[in-house]
Amino acid sequence: MSRIQAKFAALKTQGRKALIPFITAGDPEPGQTLPLMLALVAGGADIIELGVPFSDPMADGPTIQRASERALAYGVSLRIVLGMVREFRKRDADTPVVLMGYANPVEAYGSEAFARDAKAAGVDGALIVDYPPEECAEFAATLKSAGLDPIFLLAPTSVETRFAEVGAMGSGYIYYVSLKGVTGSAAIDLDDVARRIPAIRDKVGLPVGVGFGIRDAESAARIAGVADAVVIGSRLIEIIEQSPPGEAPGRVTEFLGGVRAAMDQKSGVSA
């Protein structure tokens, strides 16, 4: 059982839902990534999605694009991101880490080398946005052979046959994109998400996390009422970029702690 699978199993026994925050590695500067990852855990993160900076992040809105640009200005590469995860593992051996990014850096690194080195660094899974299941069976198998969970996206436009394809190839969890568009681009249609999740969960046989458009404790709690996990990214990046030097970790912990409390209250779990 992978660290991600074990985390979801433990949360299920507790009657809780997973909180999955996203930050971009190297933003606002490389030395802040480790403190921010630890701040996410202090705020109640169950799994961390760590973005690999990329120059053409097609699924990301302006906020996360700016984060990638800041990180790239410091020369943050996939190899450096793996080093950041290794440093995090010296402080935290339990919190799963998922790398989220695009195919180009992985292909430049080499798929087998990436899987090997990511596992050695302490990575638990990878979500490569522009690797649809019909084009990456070999890559998914390579990740699984290395002990990593390949994680896939589903969207409001996905049909039921795609649900089954993703369920057969993916592991760990499924990331449901709650709206049409890029990250941070619109408010979530909570009623539509609630209608879609049961069919997705039935077909994929994996926990379903929901992201894109979740910006506060209230919307996170409502999503937690129907999904297995809540993913928050753009709002955290905004907090980081608006914080004075040195204050971002504390502000991130405070914000995420409020989200965690609201989610647990929705699930009927006492603090």
Percent of residues in beta strands:
5-15%
CATH architecture: Alpha-Beta Barrel
**What's the mean pLDDT score?**
92
Major pleated sheet? 9 strands, parallel
Return the domain count.
1
Enumerate the strands of the largest sheet in spatial order, edge to edge or round the barrel. 5-4-3-2-1-9-8-7-6
Poorly predicted regions: 181-185
Write the element-wise H/E pattern from the N-terminal end onward: HEHEHHEHHEHEEHEHEHEHH
Helix content: 40-55%
What's the tally of helices?
12
Number of strands: 9
Q: The CATH topology, please?
A: TIM Barrel
Distance between the termini: 28 Å
CATH class: Alpha Beta
Overall 3D form: globular
| Alpha-beta content class | alpha/beta
Radius of gyration: 17 Å
Structure description:
This protein has helices at 3-14, 33-42, 62-73, 78-91, 103-109, 111-121, 137-145, 160-169, 190-204, 217-224, 234-242, 248-267, and strands at residues 18-24, 48-51, 97-101, 125-128, 149-150, 152-154, 174-177, 208-211, 229-232. It is of the alpha/beta class. The protein has one domain (3-267): TIM Barrel (Alpha-Beta Barrel), CATH 3.20.20.70. It is globular.
